[in-house]
Design brief:
The chain is an alpha/beta fold. About 35% of the residues lie in helices and about 25% in strands. The chain is globular and about 55 Å long.
Length: about 270
Amino acid sequence: MTSKALILDIDGTLTNSQKEITPATKAAIQELLKRGEKVILASGRPTPGMRRYEEELELQKYGGYLLSFNGARIIECSSGEIVCQNLLPLTILPGLYRFAEKNGCGLITYLGDEVISAFPRDQYVELEARINGLPIREVDNFVDFVDFDINKCLMTAPPEKAESLERELREKYGAVASIYRSEPFFIEIMPQNVDKAASLDKMLPVIGVGREETVCCGDGFNDISMIRYAGVGVAMGNAQQAVKDAADYITATNDEDGLVEVIHRFFA
């Protein structure tokens, strides 16, 4: 098999448990880039939260791409230009706010390099901000404050509650938004028909890569769409079981340089 594009989730896939790219993984990816293969980072993170890894892998130099907000925004690294983006309708915000308030959930969106929080921060909102290296701004009236374009909202809840809340949100808002979990405690609220697979389907023809020429790697629920879409869908050894069930291949964990194994096997 001759592969042309490696598509990588970040947390739990590209990075180890310390949110770092190991030297072995970095070397293997940069070797691919030097050979002219495409490397695309596809994450639920906001764009600022992906910049550290874009810089570390030198994607600006080699011409990689960032799919942030689960693909609601696609950026070409060399130019910094937005290739395409989808926006969440602001009309959904009052209902999301009432739902989160009723169920004791966190609710955030993003403005520039800040996390905008509707309520006093919970442990999961703090985790999201810490992962992305962004400060939190708690606002008094979230619905009135958010009068700017947004690519997603994130609702947070304990894992034992989040699964049922995800189902309820889909029943209420599935006609106007894409709703799914990226982690057991993160519920992503995205523009309709936006997920990692749909975004790849838009961009791959633009960069001259066929679907069958892709290897997509991930570990979380929001990676399932692209793993099923890929020429080869890879689940990390640390992946959720549902992700493993969807994959063509299961590699070692993110703490065992599982991506190095993938690159050696499918990009030889």
